[in-house]
Every structure is written in C-alpha cells, then in structure tokens.
Amino acid sequence: MITVNDLQFEKFISEAEIKKCVAEVAAKINHDYAGKVPVLIGILNGAFVFAADLVRELTIDHEIHFAKFSSYEGTETTGQVKQLIGLPQGLEGRNVIIVEDIIDTGTTMYNLLPQIQAQGVRSVEICTMLLKPGKLQVPLNIKYCAKEIPNAFILGYGLDYDNLGRGYKDIYVVKS
Ligand code: IMP
Ligand code: MG
C-alpha cells in the first residue's frame, strides 16, 4: 500500500502484467502497420512511460512525437482542450497513432481527432494503455487498448495524482 498526499492506494496491475499488455498491443501495431511507417503522437504528461515502453516493443519503422493538452482547469473540465505543446505539422498522407495513458470521459481524444484529421492524414487511430469503458461519454473508435479497467482512480506508470506518483512501476488504485 502507498500513500500519496491525502489518499491511500493499493496495488492493482503489476509491472509484469503491464509488460504483457504492452507487448500484446505492440504486436497488433507491428502487424497492422508493417511497411507504413506510422507517426505516433504521445500525449503528455501521462503517456510518456507507456509511449517509451510501446516503441521499444515495435519492430516496424515508426516516428514518435509528443503533444500536450489540458482539458481541465483546477478540478473542472472546461469542455475545451487547450494546446500546451502543439501537434507536429506535416502529417498529410501519414498514418497517425495517438498514444494515450488512459481514456476516461474521452473528451481529450474527441477534441483532438478532428485537429489531426484536418491535416489530411491517411488514417488516425487511438492506442491507449488503459480505458474505463464505464466512464466514456462520447463516441470514440478505440482500435488499440492494452487493458480495460473499472471506474476507479488509479496512479503509477505515468499516471498522477496531483502530479505525484508517475514513477511507480506498478499501477495502483485508490482505496475505498
Ligand atoms: P478524458 O479526456 O476524460 O478521457 O481524460 C483523460 C485524461 O484524464 C487522461 O489522459 C489522464 O491524464 C486523466 N485521467 C483520467 N483518469 C485518470 C486516473 O484514474 N488517474 C489519473 N489520471 C486520470
Ligand atoms: Mg493524459
């Protein structure tokens, strides 16, 4: 068990299980994008750990870039996604894969997809480490998902609570 600020968390997904899930999703991408040189776009901050592990399981040629968005101000969602680090340019005709840590309501991805499509990409798909299907509020086609989880707050493996806890190798869930 760990304590981060005012909350207690217990181990939820082990490092070994994460590694297995990442390898499985990478194998699908290796298969689907053979010969296509996809452009991966990791969404900061949370996806930096997943993106690093994912690319090291890829056996196909690929590019990796990062972008940074924020849909929250304090604890309120603004419904608008602010760009803190913009998308890479020159995506026309490319096969893009968005690499995200976790999809919760889906707002971030829902707002981002049209911005990428507007660059005239050949294709764009989502690859997320985690998905809370019970929280999704918008229609999203999520082609690659390493693991589905229930509606609970988690941290570790890039995910934070008040910017803490991103470095844990396992994923933890808040204790109820
Ligand atoms: P969405 O736009 O509601 O799908 O929110 C996605 C973003 O919220 C993720 O990229 C995370 O940064 C953050 N998030 C959602 N659920 C959790 C969680 O359980 N722990 C930590 N961060 C989360
Ligand atoms: Mg995120």
Note down, in words, how this protein is organized:
The chain has 176 residues and is of the alpha/beta class. The chain has a single domain, classed as Rossmann fold, CATH 3.40.50. Helices cover 21% and strands 38% of the residues. Helix 1 packs across helix 2. The chain binds inosinic acid (IMP) and magnesium ion. The site of magnesium ion has 5 residues, from strand 6. Magnesium ion binds next to strand 6.
Shape: globular
Helix content: 10-25%
Number of domains: 1
Quaternary status of these chains?
A: single chain
Coarse structural class: alpha/beta
- Biggest β-sheet strands, sense, barrel: 6 strands, mixed
Radius of gyration: 16 Å
Bound ligands:
inosinic acid, magnesium ion
Low-confidence blocks of residues: none
CATH topology: Rossmann fold
Order of helices and strands: EEHEHEEEHEEEE
The proportion of residues in beta strands is 35-45%
Mean pLDDT: 94
Quickly name the level 1 CATH class.
Answer: Alpha Beta
The total count of strands amounts to 10
Instruction: Please identify, by name, the CATH architecture.
Output: 3-Layer(aba) Sandwich
Major beta sheet, strand line-up:
5-4-3-6-7-8
